[in-house]
Amino acid sequence: MSAARPPEGAQHRSSQSEGTPVSAATSLTPAVQTPLRMFLDEFLESRVAVVALSVLGLIVLLAIAAPLITPQNPYDLATLVLTDARRPPGFVGSKGFTHWLGTDAQGRDLLSAIIYGLRISLQVGLMAGAIAFTLGASLGTLAGFIGGRTEALIMRIIDLQLSFPAILLALVLAAMLGQGKWQLIAALVTAQYAYFARTAHGAATAERSKDYVEAALSTPLSAARVAFRHVLPNCLPPLIVVATVQVANSIALEATLSFLGLGLPVSEPSLGMLISNGFQYMLSGRYWISIYPGLALIVLIVVINLVGDQIRDQMNPRLKR
Amino acid sequence: MLAFVLQRLMQAAVVMLVISAMVFVGVYAVGNPIDVMIAPDVTQEIRQATIRAYGFDQPLWKQYAIFLERLATGDFGRSFVYNMPVLSLITSRLPATLEITLAAVLGAALLGVPLGMYAGYAPDSRVSKTIMAVSVLGFSVPTFWIGLILIFTFAVSLGVLPAGGRGDTLSVMGVEWSFFTANGLKHMLLPSINLALFKMALMIRLARAGTREVMLTDMVRFARAAGESEWTILRRHVLRLIAIPLVTVFGLEFGSTLAFAVVTETIFSWPGVGKLIIDSISTLDRPVMVAYLMLVSLLFITINLTVDIAYVALDPRLRARKTT
User: Closest Cα to residue B257, out of B136, B143, B105?
Assistant: First the structure.
């Protein structure tokens, strides 16, 4: 895989760049055509995916830099001025700065609250996704690898959990565990690890019968090492596809739970809570309290889904003619 | 086949028992319902009497045993809040949820599958790119947000449809249905659309993926070579091939839609079982929570069992293997 294959790479690129001559000029010189580079080239050819990825990058940057760029810290209750509450966009507050998107019912600057909300959503979504990924993939690979009754037992539990809708599971768990970021992450992980486990199990079962596994097992390496260092990396492609879907799902699920009043505490407003707080004002015409957080949430989820779509389409072997 | 069904039924019974135990323990760990039921300033005697009357002073396993005993006679207990038998409470609100769920699922299937098939048949046309873009939105946008937008557009700005609640009902076969009245239909429209959008987006994407894969197979190539029209190919070959996974997802998604109705019912104040569970979580109405979760599990297990059996019956490859 490390040998340079310029003819194949060039052919691949030229067959794909019919009608888009620009990409032939901007793609890399055919030095070493690794699969990763081919993947990236194909990704960069889809304009929608590139735009989505840049927007996602922008959101991540905003989220990381939140304390530096927002005029107000929405978590610090001392900085809120109640008389500034429910003001329309463009209003100049008593602290002297302009509320570009208006204020909400507690006097929070909506722009700051949205950026902090995006930050929390990304944190919770990525963390829940990462933990669910690790847990589910390990469990599924082990189950697929060990086989026998352990596998049957684990997969029965996983199937059972998969037949339950994630939202109900997350709802009940969030109600049971109470409010708080880590309780919410625990609820989300429990609702989602099963998807990773099932995918990993399917891939591991397919890999288990391959020759290299038998060869690796005949060496002094332990079975666990073979499972995690040899089999698991080859199961990654479908797992990555599931991961992109699940991160978006985590964010949507977290927002739904916050909207219903469970999940994050009131002092750490996530986008869902902002939307639910603003719901009551929508019928009286103060649309900005609900609409703008909602738009931010939608943009976040849509770009993650678009990037995930492109990755998914590229990795699907049945679409390659 | 019979052995398969019997085995799955037994497994289902075991699963139900395990779930009932987990749900019971979990719900009883949520909080102390005594504080919700009686005023905080009553005397100790009244408090003790109430605790004894509801059996809260018994150890947990004993409460569970009593619960199972009552369950054997079909008695799910009485709701703490409504003070009526839980089973009749749930069944009185079930028709409302079923209405919007059925309307949503049917609408999603009837609209989504043809749109998705077209998008898969001509994936590079502008129409299908628009369909896919809209479906990404329908898929990503959380249900509660679409509900808000629908209320804002139709109820507040345009004022043509009601913003919530259920319309007039007509009693058919002893059950109150609202879609037989014009007013009821008007109230039903927005919640059903809200529920349907997510499902429709899912159906569109599934139909598109399936159609795209099938159109590349040899089967379609041979059919074209035999001179069949594109329309016949789509109708007779593609539709039948993508029907199996679609029906499976359809069945599983029905249960999921029932769960998602929780959010829709909260936004539109639709008096269904979804709103019941949210309310009972916030008021710590334990019997209702336990009963609802158990009934939902039962529903899901039944749906999964039916889908599994249907799968074996539909897919000839699985059937052949089962008879050996």
Answer: B105
Q: Do B101 and B265 touch, CB atoms closer than 8 A?
A: no
Residue ranges of chain A whose CB lies within 8 Å of a chain B CB: 156, 160, 163-165, 167-168, 171-172, 175-176, 248, 252, 255-256, 259-262, 272, 275-276, 279, 282-283, 285, 287, 290, 294, 297-298, 301-302, 304-306, 309, 318-319, 321
CB contact under 8 Å between B141 and A301, yes or no, is yes
In a domain, A23, yes or no: no
Q: What is the pLDDT of residues B56-80, one digit of tens each?
A: 777 777 777 777 777 777 777 777 7
A24 found inside a domain: no
Q: Do residue B137 and residue A298 have CB atoms under 8 angstroms apart?
A: yes
pLDDT tens digits for range B192-248: 888 888 888 888 888 888 888 888 888 888 888 888 888 887 777 777 777 777 777
Distance of alpha carbon A285 from alpha carbon B273, whole angstroms: 31
CATH number at residue A278: 1.10.3720.10
CB atoms within 10 A of CB A123: 15
* A8 belongs to a structural domain: no
Q: How far is A137 from chain B (nearest CA, A)?
A: 24
Sort residue A180 into left (φ over 0), alpha (ψ -120 to 50) or beta. left
Domain that holds residue A229: 60-319
Asked if B30 lies within 8 A of A160 by C-beta distance, the reply is no
Strands (DSSP E) found in chain B: 170-172, 175-177
Evaluate whether residue A12 is within a structural domain: no
Query: Best residue in A18, A156, A168 to probe B by mutation, most B CBs within 10 Å?
Result: A168
Considering only CB atoms, which chain A residues are within 8 Å of B273?
none
- Domain tally, chain A: 1
d(CA A121, CA A200): 26
- Lowest mean pLDDT: which of A21-30, A263-272, A289-298? A21-30
Whole-complex ipTM:
0.72
User: What burial letters (b/e) apply to A50-86, b meaning 16+ CB within 10 Å?
Assistant: eebbebbeebeebbeebeeebebbbbeeeebeeebeb
Q: Do A298 and B141 touch (CB under 8 A)?
A: yes
Q: Do A290 and B252 touch (CB under 8 A)?
A: no
Q: Is the pLDDT of residue B42 over 80?
A: no
Which of A16, A157, A160 is most worth mutating to test chain B (most B CB atoms within 10 A of its CB)? A160
